[in-house]
Amino acid sequence: MSRAAQLAELAEEVIACRRCPRLVEWREQVASEKVARFAAHDYWGQPVPGFGDPDATVLALGLAPAAHGANRTGRNFTGDRSGDFLFAAMHRSGFANQPMSVAADDGLVLSGMWVSAVNRCAPPENRPSPIERDNCLPFLAREITLLTELRVIVALGSFAWGGALRAMAGLGHGVKPKLRFGHGAEARVGPISILGCFHPSQQNTFTGKLTTVMLDAVFARARNIT
User: Fold this and answer.
1) Distances from the Cα of 204 to the Cαs of 32, 82, 128, 215, in angstroms?
2) What range does the domain containing 192 cover?
3) Are strands 113-117 and 58-62 parallel, antiparallel or unpaired?
4) CATH code of residue 73
5) Would you give the distance in Å from CA 203 to the centre of its chain?
6) Where are the alpha helices (DSSP H) in 37-189?
7) Residue of 8, 17, 31, 219 lying closest to 137 (CA atoms)
């Protein structure tokens, strides 16, 4: 079976997952009780699989789908402000063919990049529990294994950083206990370099905690490593 076919098979398993009752209830409630600005939209309301280039050397890893972003569109970072900031940077860095993504069928194509999240369901207040995180980690570990050209994980926020380290540990790679998250932090774990980056949330981008220059520098570093 080809790499793309195996990733597609994994995606189907992700979409069918109902391991976490709290998250199942929340994602479906959000999809049913729509906010006014998206009242006319059909919400995805299911777990969100990763997407991108099966030959990716870089994985951009987030926390979880946004309630009215990926939980609505069915594709990570698609249709929300975090994604606007992230995909614009990917476009400037040559990883994406266009600077915006508003829907799963909008023509976005990634080159050398895969986009995923530690948790695959939108959590209340963007806070998965430790058990919910651990329920999802096998999906991330399998994704990392299937992306055989992968060299770098860009961890978007401390939750993604911790999730990447846990997934790598689960794959049998020793992780030093003091590998702390920070913007620009680097950790070499087995064959993978993990780069820390502040999450492109509005809380960070509107306050200047994360700027376009800072994010571009992280992606440039990721290219240099690969």
Assistant:
1) 29, 10, 20, 11
2) 3-225
3) parallel
4) 3.40.470.10
5) 18
6) 70-73, 81-92, 130-146, 158-170
7) 17
Are 170 and 138 in contact by the 8 Å Cβ rule? The answer is: yes
Cβ atoms of residues 193 and 169 within 8 Å: no
DSSP-derived secondary structure for 138-161: HHHHHHHHH-TT--EEEEESHHHH
Query: What angle separates helix 130-146 from helix 158-170, to the nearest 10 degrees?
Result: 60
- State the total domains in the chain: 1
| Helix pair 130-146, 3-16: axis angle to 10 deg | 160
pLDDT in tens, the chain (226 residues): 899 999 999 999 999 999 999 999 999 999 999 999 999 999 999 999 999 999 999 999 999 999 999 999 999 999 999 999 999 999 999 999 999 999 999 999 999 999 999 999 999 999 999 999 999 999 999 999 999 999 999 999 999 999 999 999 999 998 776 789 999 999 999 999 999 999 999 999 999 999 999 999 999 999 999 7
pTM above 0.85, yes or no: yes
CB 118 within 8 A of CB 144: no
